[in-house]
Amino acid sequence: MEFDGTVSIEGVTMDEVWLALSDPVMIKQALPGCQFLVEVEEGDVDFDALAASAPDEDPPTLPEASPEDIAERAFVEGGRYAALMEISVGSVSPSFETVVTIEEREFPHMYAGGEGSASNSSFEMSSWMDLVETEDGVDVEWGAEADVFGRVAQMGQRVINPVANRVVGRFFDSVESQISDVSTDDSSGLRDRVSGLF
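The structure corresponding to this sequence follows.
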């Protein structure tokens, strides 16, 4: 399955969008059904231990968090990240144990690949994102390819595609809302501090 699209966000800079989309905390909050998203070492991932150690509350994101704090915890090229995601597909709500690797990360482009599994289903995916400056703000051009196996795959694309589109739509709605908050709250010179990071 292949998905792609463009999301236009007005009144923001490339640096602000890049910083926001580089923040694992904000990405976790924007992904529907995501329980945690943390960097992990190579080797097997103990998802039960990660779930047990996940904090009850997330640290602040933009505009409350400082750009320097977000840059410090930002995704890194070659970084490996584990996430637990619960997604309702038809009559089932599998919890996918997912591991994603940031294959490329160089402003304004990011590329990631990963895989996930639930008890009777699994998937492999790759995704990319490019930022393009516009007269009114920034376009986020994105694409993803996914192969789904097992019980979820048996439901067919007529069931899977609307679910995938719903997840992507909610994700970018949340991203746009959070980034728009940044552009309207510049009381502490946030925009200048963000631009100074790149």
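Residues 157-184 form the longest helix (28 residues).
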